[in-house]
Amino acid sequence: MNVNINKLLYRPMGMLFGVLGGLAANAAFERAWKVIAGTKEAPTPLQKDRGWGEVLLAASVQGAIFGLVKAAVDRGGATGYDKLTGQWPGDTDKHDSA
Description:
Shape: elongated
Pfam families: DUF4235
Radius of gyration: 18 Å
Structural class: mainly alpha
InterPro entries: DUF4235
Distance between the termini: 31 Å
């Protein structure tokens, strides 16, 4: 199968996985923040009564969780697509280990 067609066919699945992954990451972040700070809602940068440390910590934790979930969802989706179709939906070039 042509690589471009293969990527095009995978795109709707990848978008669905991305939405579901975002929902899962948000739920995981809310749970993690409740454990870390003891409050239900994380601070946002525009809340005047929140300090720099608290805002930056929340952003760091949120970024780490979202990055981890995105990588896991992307990799899992690509692996499942490969098993289903026999075609890897992403790049298949060897990486340079130098």
